[in-house]
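Changelog note: in this version the structure field was regenerated for every chain. One regenerated record is shown below for reference.
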Amino acid sequence: MPTQAFAETLQHRIDRLTPHFTINRPDAEGRVPVVLMMHGCGGQRPFMNEMAEIAVSAGAAAVQIDSYAPRRISRASAIASVCTGARLHGRERAGDLYATFAWAKTQNWIDPNRIIVLGWSHGGWTIMDALALRSGGEMQRATGLTELPDEPLEGIAGALIVYPYTGIGTYVGRRDWRLAPRSIAIVAQYDYIVGSTYAALERQRARGAPLDIQVFENTTHAFEDPSAEDPRVRYNPSAVAREQAMLREMIEAF
């Protein structure tokens, strides 16, 4: 278990995060579904803007959650520390997701019962650990947040989890989820960054999670990123189109 996160109230976390949200909204009246987007360990990338546009075209709002700006973590620092597991494990970052849920429920343009979460790599790890933490003291210790509700993810309708990290330090496949949102996990066939994830995801599904595991053939980690600096990454436009279609279908299903 990582060292306990620095303690702060739920409202304090909201106040630190919201100035760094990137929000896209459809031109629609009344409440709309929302997609809460969590970046990977390298931080926000341009392809996330394309996914936000897909969400809007399907009638949902998109909120990109920047977990690094409030913590003053640069991309170089993130690659050196977060991507190596030295800081900000998924269960700690789960507090950002809990805080964003609490914020979303105060917005008169968001349908609080149609909240979809979308996370890439470290963001996917964060989502799954956020579903696995036990309410009460464990949540508070892991996230550093006080004044959490008993169920901070109430209203979650779906989860799209893309090439998540599932190894040492995660709860994936080791605990039941408190909630059972309709979920899709995308596994990259040639993922040499987080390694093989299928078995851990399969164990999570065996625990009762409604998890549809989709293996994307001939893809690498971060297949959406044409400007990735890592030689283990290859851009795959057909896989990008498939991922975008999955997000659209999930939104339209609610």
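Spot check on this record: The beta strands are 8-9, 22-24, 32-38, 61-65, 110-120, 145-146, 156-162, 182-190, 211-220. The first strand starts at residue 8 and ends at 9.
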